Amino acid sequence: MDIILEALGWMTEQRVGVIDVSLVGPKNLLLERIVGALIARGYILVAAVGNDGPAAPPLYPAAYPGVVGVTGVDARRQVLMEAERGPQVMFAAFGADIKAAGLDHRYAAVRGTSFAAPVVAALLAPMATSPDPQVSLEAIDALAKKAIDLGLPGRDLTYGFGFVGTDTH
Fold first, then answer.
1. What's residue 102's pLDDT?
2. Disulfide check for 46: which of 4, 24, 68, 79 has CB 3.0–4.6 Å away?
3. For 22-151, where are the E strands, in sequence order?
4. Could you tell me the fold of the domain covering 2-146?
5. Domain segments of the chain: what residues?
6. What is the rounded distance in angstroms from the CA atom of residue 62 to the CA atom of residue 85?
């Protein structure tokens, strides 16, 4: 936990407007307080919703209020079967058949919500280059308006506002 808090501290010193957290875990009071304080100061925190399945309890930090929770979809824009569902889902992005650098200096196919979250962070970053509460809300709203609605009409528990990142894949 210390390394995560140190990383968040460094990013706030650098005034990074959008912070991606591609990890999940149980609720943690200290992390919840820090995340809440960052969001109140105008930072956008983007987080993977997790890969424990649709019936699993919410994972954090995606489930903290104000965090932009991201699920993953495949090439057919179907939610990943292992992706969590719930009110913490705000957006969906590609999370399957992605190539990532491996420790062996080769590329490997990866999958999961942790790989979808950076796509959303990258889309928000040009709109929120430094922390500002109003700009952050406007950036999230602008991205929501561009999202392709994939599930039930409007925001839903599977795809959130919908799929984003079509021009990046």
1. 84
2. 68
3. 44-48, 68-73, 89-94, 98-101, 107-110
4. Rossmann fold (3.40.50)
5. 2-146
6. 11
